[in-house]
Amino acid sequence: MGILEGKAVVITGAGRGLGRASALHAAACGAAVVVNDIDEQPADEVVSLIKGSGGRAVTSIGSVADPGQAHAAIRRCLTEFGRIDGLVNNAGVRYQAPVWEDTPERMRELIEVNVLGSLYFGSAAARAMREQGTGSIVNMASLAMVGQSTAATYASSKGAVSSMTVAWAVELAEYGVRVNALFPLAHTRMAQTDTRTPAPPEETPERIAPIVTYLLSDLSTAVTGQLIRFTANKVHIVRQTSAKEPVLRNDGWDVHDIAEVFDKHLLAALEPPPSQRWTR
Is 154 a catalytic residue? Predict the structure, then answer.
C-alpha cells in the first residue's frame, strides 16, 4: 500500500516543474490528485500520465489569483474523491527587476498569484479540512524571503507565505490540520528567472517531490508550523523570527541614548547581509 493510499490532494501549478513532479510522485504513492494549472494542455498531460499508471486524477483549470477557482478546485476534490487530505500551494511567478525599474502592474500580478493565490486556496482547503478533523497544507516558500536584490517583490511575497504558514499552523492545530512551508531548490522554468544563482540542471524537481509527499503523509504528523529548506543533497529547518540578545531596557529613550546603545551594544548583534548568511 502506498504512503498516500486513500488520500486526496490538490496541487496548484501542477502542469509543470515542481507541481508536476509533486503530482506524479503523490499519485505514485497512492493519492488521488486534483491537478490545477492555468494552462489546460500540460495539466491534461499530467492527468493522462497518472491515469496511465493506474492512478486517479482530474484537472481544475484556472488562475489561483481567482478566488472562485480556489473554491472550485477544492469542491472538485470533494466531489470526485469524497475528501481532501492535502493541499500543495505550488503555483507562483517570479521576475528580476531593480527596485527603481519595477512597475505596479508586475508587482500586483506577482502578489496576486504568490500571496493571494495561496491565501485563497489555503482558506478554502482549511474550511473542508477543519470539518474532517485532518489534513496537511504545504506552502512553497523560498529562501528569498530573507531578502534578495533585484527580486524584492518576489522576496516579500515569499515572506508573506512563510508568515501565513506559521499563522495557519497555530490556528488549525486544534482541528488536526498541519501546515508547513518548503524552501526548495530546483531547476525549473520559474527558478531560472533568478539569473544570479540559477539552480543547476541536475537539481531536478523530481528530487524535491519526495519531501512534498512526506509532508502530505501521516509520516509527518509531528511536523507543523515549520519552514523547511530542501535541496538535492541538504535538508534543514529555517529559524523563525525571534528576539536576539541583548535586549536592553530604559524607562525613556532619547536619540542620544539610542545612539549609545547601538554603538556600545547592538552593532555586534547586527545581522550580516543575506549573501553572507546563506549558502546552498
Answer: yes
